Amino acid sequence: MRLLIVEDEPLAARRLARLCEQWLGPGAPPPRVCASLDEARALLAERDVDVLLLDLNLSGEDGFALLAEAAAGAFQTVVVSANTDQALRAFELGVLDFVPKPYTPERLALALARVGSRAATPMRTLAVRKGGGVVLVPLDSVAYIQGAGDYAELVLREGGTELSEKSLERLEQLLPADFLRVHRSYLVRVTDIRELVASEGSRTAVELRDGTRLPVGRSRLGVLRKRLEA
């Protein structure tokens, strides 16, 4: 796991890096540390980060300026901040966890252990890069999500698409539990499924409420049936 710590207080940065190294264990790449938004942007642009640990107050710079951009990235973000009044706002951008300062080693370890699992609080929007900036796409406007290599295409209910830099695997970890992977290439909201329908060659598809049909992977059919029967 490749970590990037964005923290402007040297003592706090060293402690966070030390605790992360202890959690990662021997042989893991050491966390990289930077103190400014510009330096963080440069490192994130290298696409060599799995998890961003971000403080929200960086020598007067607002970490939310980076958080909005980070939410559109392919990595996961954990906020480590004393600004607990901003936790809900951060979660709405899709952070994996919000660790309030002062924190214990156990609380930090819990946040890191969540990497690869569903976010601590369900997100309501997905951030995507568009027109040189970042826009927030409400999840309620997404009909389904289709894999596009290392990216994912958000197919919108009103027509059109938006491209997310996050893969289907990463989105599966971040999205609310009512989103289900029905195929290696598709994520759908369970409540949007009208029915299962037989397809060619003993295959199965889901029909959504708008009439769209998407294939169901054979290995995923059992889980899907249980969710629909629940």
Describe it:
This protein is an alpha/beta fold and 230 residues long. Helix content is 27%, strand content 34%. It contains 7 helices and 17 strands. It has a 5-stranded parallel β-sheet, sandwiched between helices. Strands 12-11-10-14-13 form a 5-stranded antiparallel β-sheet, with helices on one face. A hairpin with a 2-residue loop joins strand 8 (125-130) and strand 9 (133-138). The longest helix is centred in the N-terminal third of the chain and has 15 residues, at 10-24. The relative contact order is 0.10. This is DNA-binding response regulator. Keywords: DNA-binding, Phosphoprotein. The modification 4-aspartylphosphate is found at residue 55. InterPro entries: CheY-like_superfamily (IPR011006), LytR-like (IPR046947), LytTR_DNA-bd_dom (IPR007492), Sig_transdc_resp-reg_receiver (IPR001789).
